[in-house]
Amino acid sequence: MSVDVSLTALAAILAVPAGGAVLLAAIPRYRISAALNVACCAITLAGAATLYAHRPRPSLYLLVDDVNTVFLIVGALVGFTTSFFSAGYIAHELETHRLKPRDLRFYHAMYQLLMFAMNLALVANNIGLMWVAIELATLTTVLMVGIYRTNAALEAAWKYFILGSVGIALALFGTILVYLAAEERLGQGMAAMAWDHLVARSGSFDPALLNLSFVFLLLGYGTKVGLAPVHAWLPDAHAEGPTPISAVLSGLLLNVALFALLRFKLIMAGNARVLSPGPMMVTMGLVSLVFAGFMIFRRRDIKRMFAYSSIEHMGIITLAFGLGGPLASFAGLLHMTMHSLTKSAIFFGVGYVSQLEGTQRIADIRGLTQSQPLLGWLLVIGVAAIAGLPPFGVFTSEFLLVTSTFARVPWLAVLLGLGLIIAFSALALRLHGLAFGETDKRHVLPAWRLAPMIVHLALVAAAGIYLPGTVITWFRHVAQLLG
Amino acid sequence: MTPLDTDIAHLLAGSMVLVSFLLLYQDRMFALLNFFAIHACVLALSVGWQAYLQRAPHLFITALIALLFKAVIIPVALHRIVVRLGIHRAIETVVGTGPTMLIGIGLVALSIVVMLPVTTSEGAFAREDLAFALSVVLLGFMMMITRRNAVSQVIGFMSLENGLVLAATGARGMPLVVEISVGFSILIAFLVVGIFLFRIRERCDTVDLQALDMSRGESPGESA
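ok -> structure tokens follow
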């Protein structure tokens, strides 16, 4: 019985988005397709939640374990709320003629294809299959970033495409090297690409090949994570694409790329003779954190600003996983979850703001708490949460990370704290202009459209005040697996 | 495997590096497309030879994909796009030909220095093959960086992918999934590019990316 349930759940997270993409490409009415989009995402979420309790047996292609269920559930949740937000968002884009009905068919099909690709990347056991899925996810997002067809959108999409392809190419070369290292011990064929086989036997692999492969994989998948210095595509892609895509990029796709990196980190961890991957990840994470913190100061575009904030937070998460150990990995995992929820909530808010104000320029947006009080205050709460103020969940994870770093590598904790403060002050400075001040404008926005934002922020606040015991046990277990 | 077999494999892989160099200094769009077709042909030969050596018939499919898709269909399609967009004249490069070639030689040296010591446990055959493949990949990167024009960047990207296919076939018994997916993703990637080229043309009458750089939302002239 339980096998049936698990297979159904697996079908729900893979076949439903794939089938949904085909169906949505054929439906011309945008109201129906928007509703169908939400329904597909709801089924995916239900499937992901079921996989937590019922796991299918691992095969050479697919594997559901403790680690990827966290990513799956967070991803499916954000995917679902974003589809809800997207329904209202695109209706407005249609009214203002920024998008045509034909574009929307394409948009919805791509949205489901992206969900499919990300779920496939997460449950793939075969490192080649994982690579294909991440490439597919990249291509779908490239197409969606360019959907407005303005010069800026095309440039952003082109830049994303070129840099993403280069990253993906590096990652494939790294994958081939891992296969070469494994082939000597596991023999030719599928077994030498199955991740669970690789982890079990990586102790006997040639260390020099593994070292070289990890450098390629770190740079390649690191590009997709948006780590400095290979982050250049990220702010443009966030700023010029439709806002639901910015939310999905920040909340999901960056996590998926990070997950791929973690899979390979575990292969490295099984071999005592290789370089430790930790310091490399810590360095890239720290550079991203400090760099992005400074970049937030100078932004003029509101979506671009929050894109840099995503780079900052992916830096923090990479640093946490690079540092390793039960506490830091726990902090990294919690921070990843909290960042996904908070950042997508912020992008929902920013999407409404840019639609209501008709601009993304920070200088032109003033006094949001007066012109649309609920939206304005939600945005204030969201920014306070992402900046790491208590009582939100981001504060909990950052606090855990700083204390565990301080206990082990004090000088690193100083740099980490410095980076956090820079980013905090930059966000606080910008927020003041956005949210407060006098304005004559009054905007109307039905409260139900803010529901996804409220749900996310409520979850983040709840996690900061009281984290349920089951979640703590679950995350602690996963953190132990991640090493 | 006789020494002659290995020599032929090396000859073919080495020719790919050579054609990559030829791609680097082309300054005419049509010549660039022709040399890319040759690049793909050499890849097809190399993959076909590997298929024969490894007794792996599925690799012939990869060779066929390289031959039909990359050596014929894509160059012909790009040829048409170039004609339609009227960009067949000189290609603007960021770095001059001389320095480009010197850096290219440096990259090949780098890939040999990196790959040969690392793969000592592999057979001599796979080692050199990988070094060649990495050279082709790096030269492809180089081309993407030094060209401003969208079409030649795409060519650079595809020559890079050719290097990846060379590496994948050099790795013994690597499952078919990967080769087909590589071919498939190139197809998708190409569709994307095709659509983009038309859209870019539609909007601002140029596929020169420098013109697009101007449209970034953060240019200083726009300051608050």
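The longest helix of chain A spans residues 151-186.
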